[in-house]
C-alpha cells in the first residue's frame, strides 16, 4: 500500500489522491470475497446451502401464514450443472416484492423483527440466486401465486451486480397447479459430494418440523417425509426490545422517533418489561451515573460539642428570639435523628422545619434564611474539627470527615491493615471530599474511585504499605453504598436526544437495572414430547429422553434450549455419539467443531451418566444420539452462513443444563438396565439350583416338594403377586396378595380377568363386565417390605387370568 505519511502536511491534495483510489465495490466482488461466510465456498456446499436457504424460507413463509408446509425439492443433473427446484405452498409473494426478495441482498422481513424465525438477515435466498447467476450465467426462474389469485406470476431475474438491483428479463402470467405458493428454479455449478449433508439436512428438518410434509428428489434418491402432526407450531408474537439488549446507536434513534416526552414514558412505551416501577429504578440508576450521588455524613454525637442550634441561630437574622430558637431546635433535632445526612436531605429538612415553625409562630422563613441555615449546618457537619485522636497525645485537630472515612475504610479493609495506615488513608480521602468543587459532595462512582485511588496511592507512597485493588474496590463500594441518589429531575426526551453522553448514561443505567426477562411468546420451542417423538420416528433406539429448559436472555434476546437423547437399539455402537444441532428448528450441518453445542457436549463428563468417554473428555462413545435445539429471537451464529452457534456463556450454560437433564434420565435407565441384567443372571442361577434343592429335600425327608416361588421372590428382593384361593360354601374366596420385597416403593396395575361375576370385592378395586368376562382392576401402591391384599368371592369353577404391569418383568414373580 502506498504510504502518504511522509508527504502529509507538505503537499496539498492528499485527500484527492486518496479519493482516486476509492471506489464502490460491486456485489459480485463482495460475494466472491465472502462466499465462504455465506456458505457457498464450494460446488458441493453451494448446492446444500441453496436448498437450505430456500427450504428455510418456505417453512417460515407457510408457518407465518398459518399454512401446514408442503415442500418439494428437486435436484436435476444437467451436464456440469445442476438445477435446483424448490416449491412451497406458502402465501406466495406479491409482484412488487418478488424481485427484491430474490434479487437484492439484505432485503427481508425478519431483520428487525424480535420473533423466532429461521431467517434473520435478509441475505439467504438472494445469495443463492447470486451464486447461481455467477456460476451458471443463467437467470433465476421464479413462479409465485398469492392466495386467491386466479393466475401465477412468472419471472426470470438477473441481479445487476453493480447496483445490487434485480433486473427482470421475463415477466408473464402463467398457470400453476398449486393454489398458492412459490417455486424457484436455480441453475448452478455444483456436485453431489455433499449428498450425505443434504440428506441429513432434509431428514433432520423433518425430525424437528413434524408438521411439515417434505419431499426430496435427487438423481440417486427420493425421500418423502409425511406429516407427523397437523398441529402448527405455537404462533409467535413480535416483542419490543428488552432494555438489556439495545446498543447506544439504537437508543439514540429511538429517542428521536418516540412520541414520549419523559424518559419514564419513553422507557415504558418503547421497551418490553418496563412498567412505572422499573422505569423509576432505571431513572435512579441514570441519576447515579449522570449527576452522581451525594455523600451522607454522620451528624455529630452529643459529646462532640458541636452546637447546631447556635449555628442556625447565628445564621438567622431578624426573626425574633422565639421563632429563631424554635427553628434552630427543629433543625438540630431533625439532624440528630438521622444516622447519616446528605446535602439535599438537609435542604428538605430545613424547609420542613421552616414550614412548621412558620405555622406555629406566624413568621415567614424565606429562601435566603433557609439557605443560610442549611449552609451553617452543613459547615458545622463537614468543617468542624474532631477532638484529638488520642487525648493523651498532642491534640490534633482534624475534620470530622476523617473519622467518618476511617470508620468506612476500616470496616471495608482486611483486619491485617495497620490502624495508622487506615487513618492516613482516611485523612487523605476526607481531604479529597473537602477539595471537591461541588460543596454538596456530589460524585459519580468513577470520580469516587479516582479519589480512593489517589488516597491509596499516597498512602502506599508515604506509609510504604500496599493498598491493593481489592481493598480499593471494597472501600469504594462501602462509601458508594452510604451515598445517596439525588432527586434531580432527569432531562426530557428532546434534551436527551441531542446529548450522546447522557444517553450513554441511560443505556448503562438500563443494563445495570434488574429487569424481568423478556416474554417468551416470541419463541416457539419444539417441546420435549415432540423431540422424543421426532427421535423415535428417526432412530430405532431402546431409550429416549428430552428436556426443554425455561427461557433465559442473552444480550436482551430471549432464548430456550432443548435437548434430547436416543440410546441403544439400532444406533451404531462404534465410534463417537452423533450430535444433532438445531437453531430455530433448522438443522446445522456444517462447522460442527466450531459450534458451542459441540463444545458443551465434549465438556460434559459422560462417564457419570453411564457412557464410555475415552480419556474422560470429548465426545462420548457408544450407541447414542444427542440432540440440541437453541431457539431465540436472535441466534448468535459464528458467521452469516448460520452453521455454528457462537460461544455465548449464557447459552452454553443452558445447553449444558438441558443436556444434563436428559442425561440424568439416561443414567437411571442404564443403571436400571445393568441391575436388571445382574438380577436376571442371579435369577437364572437360582432358577436352576433351587428346584434341584427342593427336589433333594423332598427326597431326603420323604415329604412333598416345597413351594419355592416365595423363597425366590425374597432372595431376589422381588415383587411377588400371588393368588390364594379357599373354598367357601358353594364358591371360593380369592385373595390376590402383593408382597414387595424390593427396596423401592412399587405402583402396580393389576387386571384379573375372571369368567364369573366377582362378589364382595374389597375396596380400591373395580369390576367391569365385557362379553361374559369380568375385568377386575386394582392399582395398589406397595411400599418396600410391605404387602397389599385384594379379596373377592367367586363361583367355584371360575377361571382366572392375571395381568400385572408397572414392575419390570425381571423383578416380578407371579404365582397364580
Ligand atoms: N418462499 C417464500 N415465500 C414467501 N416469502 C419469502 C419466501 N422466500 C423469502 N421470502 C421473503 O423474502 C425475505 C428475504 O429472504 P432471505 O432468504 O433473503 O432472507 P431471510 O430469510 O429473511 O434471512 P436469512 O438471510 O437469515 O436467511 C424473507 O425475509 C421473506 O420475507
Automatic annotation (TrEMBL):
HAMAP family listed in its UniProt record: Top6B (MF_00322)
Keyword terms, alphabetized: ATP-binding, Coiled coil, DNA-binding, Isomerase, Nucleotide-binding, Topoisomerase
Catalytic activity: ATP-dependent breakage, passage and rejoining of double-stranded DNA
Broadest EC class assigned to this enzyme: isomerase
Record SMART domains: HATPase_c
Family affiliation: Belongs to the TOP6B family.
Binding residues annotated for ATP, in chain numbering: 57, 88, 109-110, 119-126, 642
EC number: 5.6.2.2
Name of protein: Type 2 DNA topoisomerase 6 subunit B
Gene Ontology MF annotations: ATP binding; DNA binding; DNA topoisomerase type II (double strand cut, ATP-hydrolyzing) activity
Assembly with partners or alone: Homodimer. Heterotetramer of two Top6A and two Top6B chains.
Organism of provenance: Natronococcus jeotgali DSM 18795
Residue ranges occupied by any Histidine kinase/HSP90-like ATPase domain in the UniProt entry: 42-192
Coiled-coil annotated spans: 652-679
Reported function: Relaxes both positive and negative superturns and exhibits a strong decatenase activity.
Stored PANTHER family: DNA TOPOISOMERASE 6 SUBUNIT B
Amino acid at each position: 500500500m502506498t504510504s502518504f505519511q511522509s508527504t502529509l502536511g507538505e503537499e496539498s491534495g492528499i485527500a484527492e489522491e486518496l479519493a482516486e483510489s476509492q471506489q464502490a465495490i460491486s456485489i459480485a466482488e463482495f460475494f466472491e470475497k465472502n462466499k465462504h461466510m455465506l456458505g457457498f465456498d464450494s460446488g458441493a456446499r453451494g448446492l446444500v446451502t441453496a436448498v437450505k436457504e430456500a427450504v428455510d424460507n418456505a417453512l417460515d413463509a407457510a408457518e407465518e401464514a398459518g399454512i401446514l408446509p408442503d415442500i418439494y425439492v428437486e435436484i436435476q443433473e444437467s451436464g456440469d450443472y445442476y438445477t435446483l427446484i424448490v416449491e412451497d405452498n406458502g402465501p406466495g409473494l406479491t409482484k412488487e416484492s418478488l424481485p427484491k426478495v430474490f434479487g437484492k441482498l439484505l432485503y427481508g422481513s425478519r431483520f428487525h423483527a424480535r420473533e423466532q424465525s429461521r431467517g434473520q438477515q435478509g441475505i439467504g435466498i438472494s445469495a443463492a440466486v447470486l451464486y447461481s447467476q455467477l456460476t451458471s450465467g443463467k437467470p433465476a426462474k421464479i413462479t409465485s401465486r398469492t392466495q386467491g389469485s386466479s393466475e401465477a406470476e412468472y419471472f426470470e431475474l438477473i441481479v445487476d451486480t453493480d447496483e445490487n438491483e434485480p433486473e427482470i428479463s421475463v415477466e408473464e402470467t402463467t398457470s400453476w397447479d398449486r393454489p398458492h405458493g412459490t417455486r424457484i428454479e436455480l441453475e448452478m455449478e455444483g456436485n453431489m459430494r455433499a449428498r450425505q449433508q443434504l440428506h441429513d439436512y432434509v431428514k433432520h428438518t423433518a425430525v424437528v418440523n413434524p408438521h411439515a410434509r417434505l419431499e426430496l428428489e435427487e438423481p440417486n434418491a427420493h425421500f418423502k417425509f409425511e406429516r407427523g402432526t397437523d398441529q402448527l407450531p405455537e404462533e409467535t408474537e413480535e416483542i419490543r426490545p428488552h432494555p438489556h439488549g439495545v446498543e447506544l446507536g439504537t437508543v439514540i434513534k429511538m429517542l428521536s422517533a418516540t412520541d414520549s416526552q419523559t424518559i419514564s414514558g419513553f422507557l415504558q412505551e418503547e421497551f418490553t418489561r418496563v412498567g412505572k416501577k422499573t422505569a423509576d429504578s432505571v431513572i435512579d440508576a441514570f441519576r447515579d451515573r449522570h449527576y452522581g450521588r451525594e455523600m451522607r455524613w454522620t451528624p455529630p454525637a452529643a459529646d462532640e460539642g458541636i452546637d447546631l442550634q447556635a449555628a442556625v441561630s447565628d445564621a438567622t437574622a431578624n426573626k425574633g428570639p422565639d421563632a429563631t430558637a424554635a427553628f434552630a431546635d427543629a433543625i438540630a433535632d431533625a439532624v440528630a435523628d438521622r444516622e447519616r445526612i446528605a446535602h439535599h436531605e438537609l435542604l428538605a429538612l430545613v424547609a420542613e422545619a421552616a414550614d412548621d415553625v412558620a405555622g406555629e409562630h406566624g413568621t415567614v422563613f424565606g429562601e435566603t434564611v433557609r439557605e443560610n441555615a442549611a449552609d451553617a449546618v452543613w459547615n458545622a457537619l463537614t468543617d468542624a474539627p474532631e477532638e484529638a485522636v488520642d487525648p493523651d497525645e498532642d491534640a490534633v485537630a482534624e475534620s470530622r470527615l476523617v473519622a467518618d472515612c476511617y470508620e468506612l475504610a476500616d470496616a471495608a479493609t482486611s483486619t491485617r491493615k495497620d490502624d495508622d495506615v487506615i487513618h492516613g488513608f482516611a485523612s487523605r480521602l476526607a481531604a479529597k471530599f473537602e477539595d471537591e468543587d461541588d460543596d454538596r459532595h456530589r460524585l459519580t462512582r468513577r470520580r469516587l474511585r479516582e479519589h480512593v485511588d489517589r488516597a491509596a496511592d499516597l498512602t502506599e507512597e508515604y506509609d510504604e504499605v500496599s493498598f491493593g485493588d481489592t481493598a480499593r474496590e471494597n472501600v469504594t463500594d462501602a462509601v458508594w453504598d452510604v451515598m445517596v441518589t439525588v432527586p434531580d429531575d432527569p432531562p426530557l426526551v428532546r434534551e436527551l436526544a441531542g446529548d450522546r453522553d447522557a444517553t450513554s448514561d441511560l443505556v448503562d443505567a438500563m443494563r445495570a437495572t434488574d429487569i424481568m426477562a423478556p416474554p417468551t411468546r416470541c419463541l416457539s420451542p419444539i417441546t420435549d414430547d415432540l423431540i422424543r417423538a421426532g427421535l423415535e420416528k428417526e432412530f430405532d433406539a431402546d431409550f429416549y429422553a428430552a428436556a426443554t429448559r425455561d427461557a433465559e436472555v442473552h444480550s436482551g434476546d430471549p432464548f430456550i434450549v432443548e435437548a434430547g437423547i436416543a440410546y441403544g437399539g439400532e444406533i451404531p455402537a462404534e465410534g463417537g455419539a452423533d450430535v444433532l444441532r438445531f437453531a430455530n428448528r433448522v438443522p446445522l450441518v456444517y462447522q460442527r467443531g466450531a459450534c458451542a453445542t459441540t463444545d458443551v457436549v465434549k465438556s460434559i463428563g459422560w462417564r457419570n451418566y453411564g457412557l464410555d468417554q475415552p480419556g474422560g473428555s470429548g465426545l462420548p462413545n457408544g450407541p447414542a444420539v444427542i440432540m440440541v435445539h437453541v431457539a431465540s429471537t436472535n441466534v448468535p451464529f459464528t458467521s452469516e452462513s448460520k452453521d455454528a452457534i457462537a460461544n455465548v456463556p449464557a447459552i452454553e450454560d443452558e445447553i449444558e443444563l438441558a443436556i444434563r437433564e436428559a442425561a440424568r434420565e439416561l443414567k437411571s435407565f442404564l443403571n436400571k438396565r445393568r441391575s436388571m441384567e445382574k438380577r436376571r443372571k442371579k435369577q437364572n442361577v437360582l432358577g436352576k439350583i433351587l428346584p434341584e434343592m427342593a427336589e433333594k429335600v423332598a427326597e431326603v425327608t420323604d415329604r412333598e416338594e416345597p413351594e419355592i416361588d416365595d423363597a425366590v421372590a425374597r432372595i431376589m428382593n422381588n415383587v411377588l403377586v400371588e393368588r390364594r384361593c379357599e373354598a367357601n360354601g358353594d364358591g371360593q374366596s380369592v385373595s390376590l396378595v402383593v408382597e414387595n420385597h424390593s427396596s423401592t416403593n412399587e405402583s402396580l396395575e393389576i387386571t384379573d380377568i375372571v369368567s364369573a361375576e366377582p362378589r364382595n370385592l374389597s375396596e380400591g378395586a373395580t369390576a367391569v363386565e365385557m362379553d361374559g368376562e369380568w375385568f377386575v382392576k386394582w392399582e395398589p401402591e406397595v411400599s418396600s417390605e410391605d404387602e397389599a391384599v385384594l379379596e373377592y368371592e367367586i363361583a367355584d369353577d371360575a377361571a382366572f387370568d392375571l395381568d400385572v404391569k408397572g414392575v419390570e418383568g425381571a423383578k416380578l414373580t407371579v404365582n397364580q
